[in-house]
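User: structure tokens for this one?
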Amino acid sequence: MIGLIKGFAPYGFSIVVKFGGSLMRDFAVCKTALAELERLCRSGHRILVVPGGGIPDKAIESIDAVHRLTPFTAHHACALAQDQTGYLLADPAFSSSVVCCSTLGECRSLAESGKIPVLLPSRILFAMDPVAWSWDITSDAVAAWIAWVTDTPRLAILTNVDGVYRNAVTDDPAALIREITAHELSQLGHTSVDACAANFMAEKGIAGCVLNGSYPRRLADWLEGKRVTGTNIGISPKKSSSAVPSENFGR
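Assistant:
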């Protein structure tokens, strides 16, 4: 654990929450989900929010579908789309104690003061360039990477469906996958979690869940170890020490 190494201050987050841009389609749902995060913060959880691309990201995708964008343009525009969603989440129109910031140091200070930091990730992504410039990389993978960088043990992905479904049959409750390892999830390809994020979680030993943000109380129940409607992502078994790690989880 980073926090146990002398000279390295821990970030101290108990959970990273990827706040799906899909939740912005219904402003009432968005506000209710943020209110639940604020309640969890008051009860002692130190939360770091990583925003999805949301409405701006969809606009970029629609342009790319007609006029193929270069990887440079698409990557940088989508990172800035996450920033835009973050600014909206932190606005008083949606929340009262969510504050946007551009550095992890700011995030740590805000969490220590009882606020919920929402990271505007573009500055870090542009400076460190950790992920491939590819449509395969989404804000899910960025959130998984942030969880690893901050040594946060859990990642919750809030989206507009109940979890991960077999064959993407989201209208069949029987198709909902309730328990799966990160490695098994990565083998399914792109689901309600992108495959790159699942593979990274498997490689780095990050546990998590996929939950419907329309029912935000489920996050509290999951944190308490209760069985909830959603997909619980377990830590994959350790690989043999002879295994060669992937150089770039986005390729």
